[in-house]
Fold these 2 entries.
Entry 1:
Amino acid sequence: MNVLKIVVIGSGVVGASIARVLSRYQGLEVIVLEREPDVGWGVSKANTSIIHPGHEEDPDQHPLRAKLCVRGNMLWRQWVRELSILSTWPGELMLYTNTAEEKEARKYLEYAKRNSVPGVRILDKNEVQAVEPAVNPGVEGALYAPTAGLISPFEAVPAIIENAVDNGVKLLVETEVRNIRISSGRVLGVETNKGFIQADIVVNAAGLHADTISHMAGVEPEFKITPRKGEYILFDETVESKPRIILHTTPTPKTKGVYAITTVHGNLMIGPTAEDMPYEFKEDTSTSREGIEYIYREAARILKNPPPKNRVIRVFAGVRPEPPGGHWLIKAYSDPWGFVNVAGIRSPGLTAAPAIAEYVLDLIRETYDVKLVEKQKWNPYRRDITRIKNKRLDEIDELVKSNPNYGEIICYCKMVSKAEVLEAIERIKKIGARVTVDGVKFRVYTGFGKCQGSFCRWRVANIISMELGIPLQEVVVKHSPYGIGDVKKLWREKVSVQ
Ligand SMILES: Cc1cc2nc3c(=O)[nH]c(=O)nc-3n(C[C@H](O)[C@H](O)[C@H](O)COP(=O)(O)OP(=O)(O)OC[C@H]3O[C@@H](n4cnc5c(N)ncnc54)[C@H](O)[C@@H]3O)c2cc1C
């Protein structure tokens, strides 16, 4: 059997999902290229983390988004089980406070029917209070969509990649694609900062930069991705009145509204804004006073108790890759043969990712006449890191007996033990990513608590330093090293001279 070499550019939730789906078949050599030191650090890292039901997608304007969102919602239920990804399925309420908003909400009831989204219905004021007491009593009613869920996006991508790598996919990090080599109307491979990589098929899943990659392949010269920023406020887990159900205001032409959610880790989170930025601001994740005040005002409108400002632990922003007209560009080209765009994947891209992956598989099969034969031994499962949080004391006791590192707490805010940090390091090494303080954080939540890492960051860095056998100052936090050098070196040298 001839081996077909497929290069996937980008290890966000879309590229990772495509790699996982491709890993199921014989005769495919799949390589994921990621310019960052680790996976899932692009758009997929900072978003609202909702697995949308699909009733907010206009079936006339965006039939592909509607179809893949509904299918993605279904597939995630299976994927979270297979990959041990933390998830909750509380459903969502689109809340209205006046007749104009009610009219808007009822529009989505119609979309729900046309997109075959199950269980969507209008709840009156009393029903809303009965299902969710955290809602502001001034709210007049809501559109209820029971199939909405939440996942942890920054854990989901490593989990998908771990499983893909387990099934034969190769990941190359810190590998930036700089050109697509084409000859006689056919893709030959990609040129990267680390040299040329041959490929029969190149899948462009480069998130905010997918337009640049597309232009490298000489297709869709007019296609441009606009950065659209979304700011958030994250509150401590101890906030008393957190909504059980996902709450949001009625959508605007730009967004699905401002949300108030309890994340899978138990934090109240509100946001996002939706601000179109100049083209060159794709990496700008700064926050603004206006943005933060806006989401606070909007959230206070739908919540019974305004979120306590003294429990804010972080404000942050994500950047949406907004394509022209909001249309996802998912297409396999015959000229150049072998180039596939999966570009402009704005919301609901997190939800749809598994379904987008299936869709891309079909496109590859049909456009390039690939005969796909399933592997006899494809492993759909990935085990989660063993965590002590939420375990009973006797269970922790057993763990400590088998491995004393479970008894050494590294992060007190999120109750993370040394054994978990060590397991995260092993997992990062296993997929071939660079071990960083942030990489550990996104896997075991060290630094996600109210101290935001002031207590545990150096301890994690210290463990990495020992595990990799490198000086502490050389441990990488995200992109740059932990320190500028050994500050005691001069002192030691002075001592040895004396
Ligand atoms: C504020 C906000 C809220 C959102 N909320 C939701 C939500 O609640 N639910 C939902 O379903 N969706 C939501 N989304 C949308 C969702 O996050 C995106 O659709 C999805 O994450 C896009 O994934 P991706 O893999 O296409 O992009 P990314 O995650 O950005 O992945 C692309 C990867 O390509 C890499 N890359 C780029 N250029 C190169 C290169 N030249 N060489 C190598 N690698 C490269 C990047 O480093 C990156 O890792 C939201 C988005 C935002 C910003």
Entry 2:
Amino acid sequence: MFEASLYAARRRALMESVKTGCILLPGNDLVGMNYHANAFDFRQDGSFLYFAGLDEPGHCLWLDCESGEEMLCGPSLGLDHTIWSGAAPSLPELAARSGIENAWTMADLAAACHDAQRPGRAVHYLPPYQGEGVLRICRLLGAAPDTVEAGASQKLVRAVVALRSVKSGEEVDEIRQAVALSAQMYAELMAACTPGVAEMELYGRMQGFILARGSREAFPMILSRRGEVLHNHSHDQTLSEGDLLLVDSGVVSPLGYASDITRTLPVGGRFTRRQLDIYEIVLRALAEGTSRMGPGVPFVECHFSAATQVAQGLTDLGLMRGDPAEAVAQGAHALFFPHGLGHMLGLDVHDMEALGEDFVGYDEEFRRSTQFGLSSLRMARRLQPGFVMTVEPGIYFIPALIGQWREARRLEEFINYEAIDAYLDFGGIRIEDDVLVTEHGHEVLSAGIPKEPAAVCACMGGEK
Ligand SMILES: [Mn+2]
């Protein structure tokens, strides 16, 4: 944990921002895998972790914005828990670690909710994303399950997003630690990525590498020679010379902050000419998108810079045609680059996505587009110092999408469908860095993880 005073300051700032009513902030509970006692690996809620710092399951924070009173509520674990699971810190002990004076039982919390609701005071809560979380809100506030999502407090969501978006020095140091472990993992991966190796074996080795260093994955790793499937979680292929292996992975720091890195590797340590052509376009898009980042710059502009590089590069290769800027304005590049440039990174890998993407990445000034591709941009608004973003352009050849567009002759003034035929078996390339917005510009936190073709090939024991 950070110092207790830091969590106390965050809670004070939250209460000052919400001003009236009470805040009910539940942490996550254990969720049964196939029966209650056999639970999935526990993952604490990001907002609970941010405001309480406690990684134990089954607790709730209660904050009274008007009186400033704070309570930590949790289960009273008895001798049985000690016998089966070992001794756990007591509730008052946990509260003290977090700088909270009052430790309550869950029954006390139910009474507090009731007392607040009776005279009509607002009880603010965030949208829950697990069934257990929905039921907890129902039980505490007497709500019906299908009203819980709509009843979540936008005021609280906005206040939490405003606080969690700007990372303090301590938080950035945590992200640096996660990135440093990812760097070690990618070095290990590049050396191990040889023809004849099964994806599952590589995945197992990388997971083991992470676990053996006391960390765990921030999200299920994408490790696939079928990189054109954007979130491909299967690992059922075997690598051959000449394949491209796309690996998108992140680990957590000691206090739960994530890294999120993608590299695309030539199996056998050498790019073919065709692979290098596409790889270098993605690399230029990454450089261009990153170079624009700084305080006050709308992230959607970084997205457009990267997308224009993709369109320019593919036009030079003969796969697109016409004016690249106009092609991007019409959304033609999205046939190859159908997702956004990046997202916020923090305690959650898509930071605060559970609170609603539009609250995190959009505001009064920037509204989400409905255009294919641009509609998947998770973040458009202006950057501020302390924001940590991923920058992750890609070029993919998705046969089903190409087939559909081709049949409709969609945007054919910008797309050379005949030339694409030779690329239908190409797969996909994505390259992703983690970037901190600073007072005067930006810092690429993952700059130490090789991505230039010659450096990647050298790490893989090959040559460009
Ligand atoms: Mn990402």
